[in-house]
Amino acid sequence: MPPDKLKDLQTFLESLTHAEGIGNLVEQALKPFKSSLNYRGYLVLVLDEEEDQFSLRYVRNLSRSSQKTVFNLIDEGIIDWSLERGEPTIIPHPQRIEQLGHLTEDNFLIIPLIAGGERVGAIVVLCPLSDNLMNNQVLKSLSILSHILATAIENFKLRSNVQRKIEKLSTLIKASTIISSSLILDDVLSSLLKLTLKEVTSEYGFLLLMDRENEQLLPKASLGASLSKISNDPKSLSKGAIGLVAKSGKPLIIDDYEKDPRFCASGEFVGLAPRTLLLVPLKTKKGVSGVLVLCNARDKPFYTNDNLRTALTLANSAVVAIEKSYLYEDLRQSFLDTVIALTTLIDMKDRYTRGHSVRVTRYCLQIARKLNLSRREIEILKFGALLHDIGKVGVDESILHKPSKLTDEEYKAIKRHPEMGEDVIRHIKFLEEGLQIIRHHHERYDGKGYPNGLKGKDIPLLARIIAVADAFDAMTSDRPYRKAFSFQKTIEELKKGAGTQFDPEIVKLAIAVFKEMRKQGPILHW
Ligand SMILES: [Fe+2]
Fold first, then answer.
1. By its UniProt entry, which SUPFAM superfamilies does this protein fall under (predicted)?
2. Protein fold of 3-162
3. Bridge partners of 284?
């Protein structure tokens, strides 16, 4: 053997213990054959025992069409046949035969990888037909080498299986951290999609959820492409790949979407031309509740079974998040129904304020949107506003309905309602954060309010919002001792109170809100 070949062989033997991956190992193994075979490129297939399928593990200088041809060789059983033979096999490139009608210089050399009698995989090399390729000595050397290589690859497989399990565990830990981080489903799904696109390296992706009422798929989260790139036409979705996965409940890998006659004309994607797709159904106990769509595998021609396994793991995490969120949403809705029933109780107690709590809540939510409050703050404000006067249940009706001026004692009794409300609600854990706004909704910006005489920004923001909404509704409602103010007079009164009774910034926003609401129609009183 010439010295340079010996050097290559030595490098290969060293790589058996130091190589960073299967690709590196095969590269070193084929180096001594570079000049004799003059190969253009190659790929490495490794048999996945669990799936009993070949998976693509490494590609070097092989075009997409040649890679597809190799996959056709798998489908036609030629790779299996070569493994059964147990010797390197030369197969003419089928496309060239079709075009030219005779053997050409491009051929696939299939090198079977067998270790201890077990099938490990195959290396498929694209090389021109030459005397060397037909030379038995070269093929014999390749055969010996392939056995050493197969054992080394088998070791790599074992190590990478352990690595894969560690990675799966790490992905699961990341996913469960995301699920427990928030109760807001949209946020959880966006974070899970981000993790999925990172783990299953893809250019962009979407998550669609089945609407609970009309059972239609709706885009819920996207990354790398806008949500509007998914059609909102149920017919397009049902004709496409997304609809098929939702209907069948089975995952789907598409290698060339644009040329797939089943889906390419469906119109499910708007202005997008995805190349490769991986779709996974989100299956709950009640059926398919959504579809995870990953588009354009990065750094590889197709999505692999390994990608599918990771996507399935993450889809299961999304299902856990969805079920948790639906459960929470059902609980929240029944809680909201109970709270609204409670406000009816407040209204029954004080007939002059019928519908007051619901109206105040509506005003507060509009003001909160102008203030760009977070969803959580809006949620607290909603329950706080609905229940701000719950303490009035403890005030004597004769005082609440008294048409004449209140005595000091009577006024004191009324002034106790924020604290009594706080006492009532204190035991409901869900409303913990709303306690402060119930207690402080009668504080004044100048510090002359009750119960604590808090001043300015020391008064919780949500309580300052309720104070303005509460006053607006009180002034526009009839009272035992006066008729309702006109809209204009109420606005004037709010302006007068800005900086003394109310937070001036909130008054400004609230007046804009009241004017907008009035434009949309009369503000109804029950
Ligand atoms: Fe009140």
1. GAF domain-like, HD-domain/PDEase-like
2. Beta-Lactamase (3.30.450)
3. 287
The strand order across the sheet containing 118-128 reads 53-60, 41-48, 118-128, 106-115, 89-92
| CATH classification for the domain delimited by 182-325, as one of 3.90.79.10, 3.40.50.2300, 3.30.479.30, 3.30.450.40 | 3.30.450.40
Residues 178, 172: contact at Cβ < 8 Å? no
461 three-class SS: helix
Fold of 350-519: Hypothetical protein af1432 (1.10.3210)
Query: Distance of alpha carbon 246 from its chain centroid, rounded?
Result: 17
Cα–Cα distances in Å, from 93 out to 26, 41, 108, 110, 227? Answer: 22, 13, 6, 12, 43
CB of 271 closer than 8 Å to CB of 228: no
Q: Which residues pair with 122 in a beta bridge?
A: 45, 112
CA gap 430, 192 in Å, rounded:
26
Q: How far is the CA of 184 from the centre of ligand 1 (A)?
A: 31
User: Which one, of 434, 300, 461, 439, lies nearest residue 380 by Cα?
Assistant: 434
Please give the average pLDDT of every successive group of 10 residues along the chain, which has 526 residues. 61 67 84 82 86 84 86 90 89 61 68 90 86 73 86 83 80 82 82 90 92 83 90 85 93 91 88 92 88 89 86 89 84 85 77 80 94 91 91 85 85 92 85 90 96 96 96 87 87 96 96 89 51
Rg (the chain; Cα; Å): 36
Q: In which region does residue 61 sit, left (phi positive, over 0), alpha (psi from -120 to 50) or beta (all else)?
A: left
Q: How far does the centroid of ligand 1 lie from the alpha carbon of residue 418, in Å?
A: 7
pLDDT of amino acid 525: 44
The CA 334 to ligand 1 mean position distance, Å, reads: 25
Per-residue model confidence (pLDDT) at position 351: 64
Number of H helices, E strands in the chain: 21, 10
Residues with CB under 5 A from ligand 1 (ion): 389
3-state secondary structure 64-96: HHHHHHHHHHHHCCHHHHHHHHCCCEEEECHHH
- DSSP letter at 371 equals T
The Cα 140–Cα 36 span in angstroms is 13
CA of 374 to the centre of ligand 1 (A): 25
Where do we find the tokens 């009183």?
525
pLDDT at 333: 86
pLDDT of residue 503: 97
Instruction: Give pLDDT, residue 7.
Output: 65
Half-sphere exposure for 354 (CA within 13 Å, toward CB):
8
202, β-bridge pairs = 297
